[in-house]
Amino acid sequence: MPVSDLFCRPCIASMSPWDFAIWTSLLVAASVFLLYRCKKQFHRHRLIEDMPTSKIRSASQGYTELVGIARQDTHPRIAPLSSELCIWWRYTIERYQRSGKSSHWQIIEKKQSRSPFFLEDTTGRCRVQPDNGEITTAHKRVWYGNSRRPVSSPLKGSGLLSRSIGMGRYRYTEHQIRDGDPLYVLGHFESDSAGRQSLHVEKLAGDILRSWKADYAALLARFDINKDGALGRDEWQLVQQAAKFKARDQLAELAKQPPQHTISQPEHKGLPFIISNHEQDQLGRKLLNSARLSAAGFLLAGALGSWLLSARFMI
């Protein structure tokens, strides 16, 4: 049934029950989805507007908002499709499918980077673990080709969207976060001073003892006081005491190191994990506009559904 017939009352009245049920179900599903999306996007907009921004050095443990500069980890990364340097990437490869009079783009491959990177502000650095994050980026490229993998990089234009000349059977879309980008993160913040939360004297002393036992000859040379080729009870106690002293010294050195900070997916499933290289104000506006568009779509789908029902049953 043509879409134009949806605005024709006699056409709706004469529509088969099956067609009427399909269109009604589609409009109900669209209304529910758009209402959910409106609520979701508006909730994220309010979180970004209302959540106070913390500095890394003084941030409280738990759900926290950080704003800073994106920095790479120890090794630079290369985006798989464009071969450009970045610190995070996501790409999609689609193939153009034609079936009779209809055609569409079908996703055949989709991947994203899981490697951590850093957010840096004026007080320190925080490791960002991007797994399960809702990531939006300002760097997006779309281009076309005739092979599953692109044989050339996209044309670099002045805008955020670059497209090569002409069309191809395959469409490539790539998003990036680059070193030096502004970075906004809302997630679960946790600090650990060089691992001290997971280390204590007894555990570290045990690790030291195991490493010493791996070179038993050197252990005998240090602690076999009576030179009988074995470690007696008193000598073994001396070994254990030496391991504990060394463990305390190592923990004291760790205490002098700056804390290691990490922000990741919140433990509570109802809290979003947002990562973006848009400026904070721009990100808030994008979410608000998305919520408004979803609300308008909800009203439109609801109005069309009401029109279908009234045209069908209230002629």
Structure description:
The protein has helices at 9-13, 17-50, 201-213, 216-223, 233-256, 280-313; strands at 53-54, 62-71, 77-78, 85-86, 88-99, 102-112, 117-121, 124-128, 134-136, 139-145, 170-177, 182-192, 260-264, 274-276. It has 315 residues and is an alpha+beta fold. A hairpin with a 2-residue loop joins strand 5 (88-99) and strand 6. Helix 3 (201-213) packs across helix 5 (233-256). It is elongated and about 110 Å long.
What's the topology here?
Elements (H helix, E strand, L loop, with lengths): L8 H5 L3 H34 L2 E2 L7 E10 L5 E2 L6 E2 L1 E12 L2 E11 L4 E5 L2 E5 L5 E3 L2 E7 L24 E8 L4 E11 L8 H13 L2 H8 L9 H24 L3 E5 L9 E3 L3 H34 L2
Parallel strand pairs: 1-2, 8-13, 9-14
Antiparallel strand pairs: 2-7, 2-12, 3-4, 5-6, 5-11, 7-8, 10-11, 12-13, 12-14
Briefly characterize the structure.
37% of the residues lie in helices and 27% in strands. The protein is α+β, with helices and mostly antiparallel strands and 315 residues long.
- Give the averaged pLDDT, no decimals: 84
Query: Main sheet: which strands, in order across?
Result: 2-7-8-13-12
Alpha plus pi helix count: 6
> Uncertain segments of ≥5 residues (pLDDT<50)?
157-166
Structural class: alpha+beta
By DSSP, the count of extended strands is 14
Report, as a whole number of angstroms, the end-to-end distance.
20 Å
- The share of residues in helices is 25-40%
Radius of gyration, Cα only, in angstroms?
Answer: 30 Å
